[in-house]
Write a structure and sequence with these properties.
By secondary structure, this protein is an alpha+beta fold. It contains 4 helices and 9 strands. The strands form 2 sheets. A 5-stranded mixed sheet has the order 5-8-9-7-6. Strands 1-2-3-4 form a 4-stranded antiparallel sheet. Strand 8 and strand 9 form a beta hairpin. Helix 1 packs antiparallel against helix 2. The longest helix is centred in the N-terminal third of the chain and has 28 residues. The two termini are 14 Å apart.
């Protein structure tokens, strides 16, 4: 088993993101349930082109399930990053559960520092930028490790622990053996 030099877990913890998600939930779900209960209790059709009570109920349930699913997805999404003696390991459940591995031999160069997640990749999550930026895996902030692979591909992995990651990468790339 390879020695782990660096380990980090990141989650979607931005207050503004959760505020936006909860606002979207409220704006999409509350009016539907209000309309359903108003139509059922008063008998007055809800809206300009009213649906039947059963249809309105089904729509309200489906939209509620969809929005709850989105909230659960964001709540349980975690980016795991490890630097081991032989390479960089990362996974991002529920998007991909198995470890993706970039072996030390595959890495041509790397930098750890600031980047622009919105400008370079269009946001957070699993992102693909067609062009020089490559693929990104990030959940928050503007710090990350850009790996330029020997085959020309670029992979950006977000971090919140820049200095510890830099140290681990230096150690891994130098191929230092662990002290016994």
């Amino acid at each position: 088993m390879e020695k782990t030099l660096f380990k980090e877990e990141q989650r979607f913890g931005q207050w503004w993101l959760w505020l936006l998600l909860i606002a979207c939930f409220g704006v999409s779900v509350v009016p539907l349930w209000y309309g359903y209960f108003d139509q059922v209790t008063t008998g007055i059709p809800w809206g300009d082109h009213p649906a039947s009570n059963a249809s309105l109920l089904i729509i309200a349930i489906l939209v509620t399930l969809l929005m709850v699913g989105i909230l659960v997805l964001f709540n349980f999404s975690t980016l795991y990053l490890e630097v081991r003696e032989n390479g960089v390991y990362f996974r991002f459940p529920p998007f991909f559960r198995r470890w993706k591995v970039i072996r030390r031999e595959e890495i041509g160069s790397y930098t750890v520092g600031k980047y622009n997640p919105i400008g370079e990749y269009g946001g957070y999550g699993v992102r693909t930028s067609y062009g020089r930026h490559g693929k990104a895996y990030n959940v928050s902030g503007n710090l990350g490790m850009r790996l330029t692979l020997r085959n020309g591909k670029v992979v950006m992995i977000g971090t919140q622990r820049k200095q510890a990651l830099e140290y681990a990468m230096l150690k891994m790339m130098a191929g230092l053996e662990p002290a016994k």
